[in-house]
Amino acid sequence: MSDVYENDSFFLAYIKWHYRKGLRELFYVSQNFLWFVTHFFSFRLLIKTLFAPWKRLGETYEGGFNLSAFASTLIVNSLMRAVGFFTKILVLFVGAISYIVVLAFSICILVIWILAPLILVGSLVLSVTFFVI
Length: 133
Known about the structure:
Blueprint: H1 10-40, H2 43-48, H3 67-132
């Protein structure tokens, strides 16, 4: 242990570590998981390119007055934008669900971490009273 904890009893040193350094590291790990989910699903990029064609697929209109070529290009480009839109919405939805799950899991772990010493002491007290009675 570091010099800070050498003058304290084992119990006091553990409590200091648990609620100071341990809690700080738990926040850091949770922040890393949330950062990973945010960047894995590229929320910012998906929102910026929401109406862009899927994988940049599409046709170019060569100009002139050809109604069938114009209609064909319009239909293909509109279809590729629709496919891109729905695919990106689906990925955003899955990413949002993943973010919420990681956030909820982090909060649960935080509550467990904060209550862990109390749960341990309570379990020891209950086990002792069980065997004494």
